[in-house]
Amino acid sequence: MIVGDWRPATVSEVADVTPTARVLRITVPGWPGSEPGQHVDVRLTAEDGYQAVRSYSLGSYGGGDTIELAVDEVPDGEVSPYLVRDVQPGDMLEVKGPLGGYFVWRPGGVNPVQLIAGGSGIVPLAAMAKARADAGTGPPFRLLYSVRRPESAIYRDELERLAGDGGVNLTWVYTRGGPPGWTGRVGRIDDEVIASTVWPVDQMPDVFVCGPTSFVEQVADALVRLGHPPAKIRTERFGGA
Amino acid sequence: MRAENARSVVDGNAIAGLLAELFTQDMTMMTGTCGGCGAQAPFAHNVVELDETAAIVRCRSCTHTLFTVLRDGETLRLRIGSLVALEAP
Amino acid sequence: MAVFSRGFGARRRESDERLPPGQYLTEDFPVLSAGPTPRVEPAEWRFTIRNENGDATSWTWDEFMALPIEEITTDIHCVTRWSKLGTHWRGVSIDTLFEGVETDAGYAMAHSYGGYTTNVPMEDLLDGKSWVVFEFEGEPLDPEHGGPARLIVPHLYFWKSAKWVRGLTLMDEDAPGFWEQNGYNMHGDPWTEERYW
What we know:
heterotrimer; B: mainly beta; 5-stranded antiparallel beta sheet; 3-stranded antiparallel beta sheet; globular; C: mainly beta; Sulfite Oxidase, Chain A, domain 2; 5-stranded mixed beta sheet
């Protein structure tokens, strides 16, 4: 896989999707296309030449010149507040990618697929779910998405729509509070939640887990405790809590 | 290349772009063998401690440093530690 | 042709005045030789400075303890920008040790029990910049942390601060520290050692 150098790119659309997150659509002339689950490195250069580089997963997949990222603002961060609050259509940045062949869903498998997302970890998994839905056929998908509250969920509407169409079986976990009228469980994912929502071990699911490092480790440990072979679990950790 | 915090603990996926400056192909899928404990794992699987100046890549099984990528301005340095073998998947 | 991002840069992290500005990398990357943590009894401990002509000046542990001892409070910085601020040590200043030593050498090679070596320019050792220390945070320096005595050169990245130091060999020309090619064993590689502070 050829990864290439920095490509100049222009922000074409921004959309505030949660109180702290924004989806950006970026036009990258010559974009070679990407597989579901891949990411890009984004480089910003200030007028005095100061540069910063950050990695962001792609919420989009496939060809075309436009890619989509979702950025969640990190308090006191250096780059995310700029991307979430300041950047406007027409602004320029540089993109390197697509990157990462490990954390990718490729069609053609027969085993069911389990996606488990924590917070902004949903982004690459949403790309996978969209790809599966667009394909129309393939292994069944389940998505377990852990968020603080409904309004903190990135891609909430898109995922609900995919679930409604039968493209993915969606289970929400709310760690701080549910939607109005919610009588379900509120709290962090634990072994019980995983055991009751994830594909059973004997179905030999391909599992993708993405989110903050501590979330991923906790979930991966639980999966292994439940009997899922480590080789069937692919993980991607974001920095931070 | 770097997560938002001063020093983040992530995994090999996070340095796919950084390694692309050293290698022409995607390294996250390459299987590395740790000289400390013999464990074999895809690069994506390793523990990576990441900030602006360095990415320290450690074996998830035994924590020995497999290799480190250091950035000195424009220059990258790769220091190999416990990594004893690299294979395509 | 640079691509500038309008308005970016306002929130760059202001560098903490106490942390090193930017990077400080040397060409060296010594690896500790294979083997267990050196355990040296004070009765057998020696510290030797050998100048570029081969003339040696040595101290036993008792002679060393009779030298002027200083209290040092300093910040130590790991190569990955990890810093430990306000650490407390007790030891003998390198300036004190060099009082009787005749030399024009520009460089020193620090040697340690166990075979570790690391090179440091003289200008980074002298004028209050380094010490041979034997106490950390009020306690005798334990072997895992380089005891009975180690070199500390706080303004350089911490892996220049040779553990289990036994002496300095002075050199006219800079030379990299020697590291073993055979029996290459990552026990105690510098990158993991510093984690345990």
